[in-house]
Design goal:
about 600 residues, alpha+beta, Butyryl-Coa Dehydrogenase, subunit A, domain 1, Butyryl-CoA Dehydrogenase, subunit A, domain 3, 4 domains, eight-stranded mixed beta sheet, two-stranded antiparallel sheet, 10 strands, globular, oxidoreductase, acyl-CoA dehydrogenase activity, Very-long-chain acyl-CoA dehydrogenase
Length: about 600
Amino acid sequence: MTARVFKGGEFLIAETGKDELFTPEDFTDEQKQIGQTTEQFVANEVLPVREEIEHQQFEHVVHLMKRCGELGLLMIDVPEEYGGLELDKATSMLAAENISGSGSFSVAYSAHTGIGTLPLVYYGTEEQKKKYLEKLVTGEWIAAYCLTEPDSGSDALGAKATATLSADGSHYLLNGTKQFTTNGSIASLYTIFAKVDKEHFTAFLVERGFEGVSVGPEEKKMGIKGSSTTQVILDNAKVPVQNVLGEIGKGHKIAFNVLNVGRFKLGAAVTGAAKGALADGIKYANLRKQFGRTIGSFGAIKEKIADMTSAVFAAESMVYRLAGLIDQRLATIPRDTPNYYDVYQRAIEEYAMECAVAKVFCSEVLAFVADEVVQIHGGYGFVQEYPAERYYRDERINRIFEGTNEINRLLVPGTLLARAMKGEIPLQQEALKAFESLMTPSFEELDDSVPFAAEKALLAGLKQAFLVLAGSAAQKFQAAVKEEQEVLLAVADVVINIFAIESAVLRGEKMLPSLSPARRDAVQAAVKTFTFNAGENCAAAARKAAYYIEEGDALALMLSGIRRFTKYDATGLLQQKRKLADAALEAERYLF
């Protein structure tokens, strides 16, 4: 039977079965081997020189990138005809997750393999690919992506860099400054965006050695100190016309479509970092003694460990669920399809909202974990001798780059409403049904024989709450809703938590039959703990949105519905948290 291919955003209005979800338990032996290779590379080759990298001895980064090339870790997303492996997104995310233990080096790796290389893969001409891709997949050259400018960050299309065709038509002269370029001082190839004739936003492949290209000094950063971050300065930089990437005036397609994968890959990387930070926090809790006992034996610390473990479980579940969604859709595109990468990009763009959700949710899980790990360490978490301090500094950037979390949150309801207006998703019809349910109290009883029945009932209610809120906002504000950012941000938080809860619940349900009793208990505890925490966050966001949208009787009705839709029976929560924490403390690592 052919597997169902879900549309982007469809999870909000359609039921997903556990067997329609890709999870880490589905990894093939080949995928596991790539994950292990990456993990061993980090442990054996990166960590021994991590301190030197943190002090910006970038020769180590350059050498290690070549080693990545030798190990095949730069080839995963590149077609075979150009020296790549062209593996699936699940494998790409697994490599990104496992490289994250390398700290700052992972930033160089992710920028190179993601936004550095993919524009060329997706939009390059045959000649451009033959000229540059082999150098990139071997690590001979390192790639960088130059979009941000001193006066244009989130407003990428407001860039001021210009490109002017030379009199003889042989090259463009690029002028301007690009800001916060990852790999800036070590890259040999930059993807640079500039406006042809100050109007047509266009991408260019620019070699480091081209006349007029120079690199500014390293930025003095709060964290990820071992990654190169510089300005790239263009002073009549001579770029051959053959190095225009894609079409003139279509640079926005490259910029934004590649960022979808970048956001997704960031979600995987920060999830891996959260696992590492959590493990260090647990180990410290088992070692540190106060009042004659290890601090891990105290309820205050156990609760932190349970909350962190369950949040990482949800993040991991979300990342690989999304990998499965994308891979399943990409698998429907024959490789000999004309304009294959145009169709390929549209397939990924289908899940632009889910990519934004993964970026926001997973980066904020890492922020939560890093903060709690510092707290578990107490005063020692504030000194550089312990890794907690570095986790805390390094995590902060993840909520800023690849689009700030605010921009990504706004993208979530914005994408949904735009697709609804085009008739691509029946949001309006489903919202009308949800409004009817406001007037019709439900007296359905939970079927205790169904795994996670209470969690599934909550999910169904949360989806109804979202539809009521989205429908009300669209009806009240109409086309001006895009200016109601406070409303959109609150609605986005409802969507994000729904996707996270559902990913955790369905993965848990899928795992249960094959687990030992102890493992089954841990999974059930993780799902209940996360569902309670995320459900509370969802309810708070829904109430806030209701207050922003309505007033009077309409508000009272909506709040009454939200109370009903967000009801969750979390009986036994404390016992479940303690059980989860005890299992994590015994394992001294992330459990799943």
